[in-house]
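TICKET #2291
ISSUE: user wants both folds in one file
ATTACHMENT 1:
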Amino acid sequence: MYHGTKSDYRGFDRYDHEVDGCATIVVAPHDVAPGRPWMWRAEFFDHEPQADVALLHLGFHLTFIEVHNTFGCPWAMDRWESFYAFLTGEYGLHPKSALEGLSRGGLYCHNWAARHPDRVACIYDDAAVMDFKSWPRGLGVGDGNPAEWEKLLQDYGFASEEEALAYPLNPVDNLAPLAAADIPILHVYGDADTAVPPVENVLVVQERYGKLGGRIETICKPGVGHHPHSLVDPTPIVDFVMQAYGLEPLDSTAS
């Protein structure tokens, strides 16, 4: 049923394939959960994969497409279009995916959700970039990354920095389509993050999404910086994703 080269991923079958010129990964669960739900990781496959592995054990597929660190730019989203069509067509995965945005991966997840809110079950953000003026530009209180900023300007096709800074579709500015579709968001972050400062990213989204009537939960890790991502015990993340699909959460006390 699955395409590509088969190997082992933490006790599960991994399939490496190519879609629209990009390397892709699909990890199959042993027993598929009802509805064929899936987690789509945007960046950094296998980094702090606690939630991913737990969901595999619960019958979720795990997917990834390598779009070469392009910050969720339109080119990357076009490749996501091809991968989505492949996964829902060839493998019959659920028409809505759970999105996982670690760090810069948040740009991909939110740009995809704004483009296709009907294809998203939920978003799990983790120390995620919500405004590229914050990172990589470093326009506010954050560290910034000049080399990554130059690459972002090229990937988005901006003619100048001024055009980039005036861009109206950063995740912090483009939440209305997500709220209208009632997409739940969980954002895990450290309050000592100087790379992706919460005050310019998650806390802005929390305020604005709430005002739009959107559902957002946050888990703050006191004294933690940009790393480590995820949670030692991923149960809150797993429960959030399970509930988004209408499945029974691991924590029987979860509401």
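ATTACHMENT 2:
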Amino acid sequence: MVAETRQAIESVRALQRGGEGPPPPGARAPPDEWPSLRDALARGSLELQHALRVAIVATAAALLAAGLHLERSYWATVTVILVLQPHAVATVRRALQRVAGTVIGGIAAALIARTVQQPLLLGPLLFLFAFAGVAVRRINYAVFAALVTPVFVILAEMNAGGLHLTEARILDTVLGGALALAGALILWPAAISSGCPR
């Protein structure tokens, strides 16, 4: 919340000055020089901590999903990798966007699968969803997730021959998002929050 408040204050100041606004919370300033691999792997480096965090949480997600016998267990692992960010603020935002977008997209996928039966109509519709989703990805990740979820779910359901994967996609995404949040808050949380922009 502190980072969000700081972001809002800096945005207002930038508007008053007519200058460029601050980078979004969790964004990293461009480096003065390219970091070396030795710097990235140095003890206590943000990159090393984040790499370890992603590896630990993604492995935990894969093991948990396998233990629960989830049908598309890789969806939970992929969610962890996509949601975890180097900074806690960015991780929380991405988790909320990913889960909300997937739930909305899952509902849309169920409606599309039940109402559009003709492949000649379904193909162009999925093309439009994929096109629009990728176009807005950098603008709003939640909208991106909502638009591409029907594409993945419907294509997977067509290959699986059923309409049961919407629920699996939502549950796997919620599981992956929850694990990513837990990883961001438990594994080196001080280092994550200290990296927020000032």
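RESOLUTION: both attachments delivered.
EXTRA DETAIL ON ATTACHMENT 2: Residues 88-115 form the longest helix (28 residues).
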